[in-house]
Amino acid sequence: MPEPDRMKIAFVYDAIYPYVKGGVEKRVWELAVRLTGRGHEVHIFGMKYWNGDDILIREGIILHGVCPARPLYAGGKRTLGEAINFGLRLIHPLGKGRFDIIDCQQFPFFSCISAKFIFLIKRTPLVITWHEVWGDYWYTYLGQGGAFGKYIERLVARLTPHMIAVSRITSEQLTPLSGLKTIVIIPNGVDQSRISAIPPAADRSDIIFAGRLIKEKHADQLVRAFALLSKEQPAIRLLIIGDGPERETLLGLIREKGLLDRVSIRDFEARHDDLITRMKSSCVFVLPSTREGFGITALEALACGLPVVTVDHPANAVRELITEKTGFLSSPSAEDLADKIREALAHHEEMREACLSMAAAFDWDRIAAECEEYYRSVIAKKGTRDRIKNRDPRT
Q1: Under DSSP, is residue 210 helix (H, G, I), strand (E, B) or coil?
Q2: Per-residue pLDDT tens over the stretch 345-354
Q3: Same domain, 47 and 14
Q4: What would the mean pLDDT of 288-307 be, rounded to a whole number?
Q5: List of long-range contacts for 155-162, beta carbons under 8 Å, 24+ apart
Q6: What is the CATH number of the domain that holds 237?
Q7: Which pLDDT does position 386 carry in this prediction?
Q8: Within this chain, do residues 288 and 159 fall inside the same structural domain, yes or no?
Q9: pTM: predicted TM-score of the whole model, two decimal places
């Protein structure tokens, strides 16, 4: 089957960048921008975050508002009703189009099941991109209901033989779950040339965190570590950028520790460049997450020349970006986290070049080219199967 010059690609994820700023949203958007630039027709199916028509064209990318936007979280957890509603409402608009390939993000799982339904009807090749595997963590997240989450995760892992993992950790966890021998790894990326051209902000911080304020990110542990550091270095400043269900709890902890004059919390910036200016005006990036499928913000911090301090946890893929020259791994304790941040602050200038070099290996243009090549290989396999299926048995 000859390679098509132009593919018609559908990405599926309920939240759409820049209306929602998270790692998965950022990946889909950056790939869509570059694949559009390479001559492909790219569609994103998600919830409708804009007014007016359900279909919107932005930077050449065709956005489909599948259903009105609903809150992603309730009580600190992803809402089941939103996930089911989006999955059900997805079938009709996705099924109306004729696509060469569908790339569905693995979570929330119900949209993957809908995309599989479209595959069964229209034989459109389906790729599922996995950002993390939860396994037994489902019981921590949902209690007894975790058995259902774990079952659905395993079901989705077997919907298609075409899987992408964004990190080595995710690939290793997904391989036995899917029954596949190997899972292709196509990581997230960074636009280092753009980042290098952005100036730092005028107001400086010493330590910066950026991410959703959810329990798994452990921003509270960072505040406790900072409280220890500030006793010996009273002039240092911490900037926390993000929003989420843990925000009020975090503000309460900051007040309790008497840190209101040294710790600032800001919402995600309207423009992504504004986040980069904040990173560039800091010294150390800290992400004490125990669950991270990749960690785009950590990679962006490296691209700003900042060493990264993160937690040495088996479910934290940020560890894959850390060497002795690019950052530090801490235990989950506030005391050890404070020790590692102290060391990073002392050595951040001499670590700058190694951080920039690490980030350069994850250029978004290269990542988009890898995705393009993988999509073509999946389409080619589908063409081979169709020819075999349609072959006249008498020949």
Answers
A1: strand
A2: 999 999 999 9
A3: yes
A4: 94
A5: 155/109, 155/113, 156/106, 156/109, 156/112, 156/113, 156/128, 157/130, 157/133, 159/112, 159/113, 159/116, 159/126, 159/128, 160/116, 160/119, 160/126, 160/127, 160/128, 162/125, 162/126, 162/127, 162/128, 162/378
A6: 3.40.50.2000
A7: 56
A8: no
A9: 0.85
For 261-274, what is the mean pLDDT? 88
Average pLDDT over residues 65-83: 89
pLDDT(111) > 70: yes
Residue type present at position 308: V
According to DSSP, the residues that pair with 77 across neighbouring strands are 74
Question: Would the CA dihedral through 208, 212, 214, 217 be positive or negative?
Answer: negative
Torsion of CA 197, 201, 206, 208, to 10 degrees: -80
Residue 395 has pLDDT above 50, yes or no: no
Residue 385: predicted pLDDT: 54
d(CA 30, CA 367): 10
Structure tokens at 227: 């409280």
* Residue at 95: amino acid letter: G
Task: Give me the domain span that covers residue 207.
Answer: 192-360
Number of domains forming the structure of the chain: 2
Q: Tell me the backbone φ, ψ of residue 114, rounded to 5 degrees.
A: -65, -40
Residue identified by tokens 């889909």 is 28
> CA 328 to CA 351: how far, in whole Å?
11
Closest to 371 in 3D by CA, of 186, 165, 182, 192: 186
Going by DSSP bridges, is the β-strand pair 73-74/77-78 parallel, antiparallel, or unpaired?
Answer: antiparallel
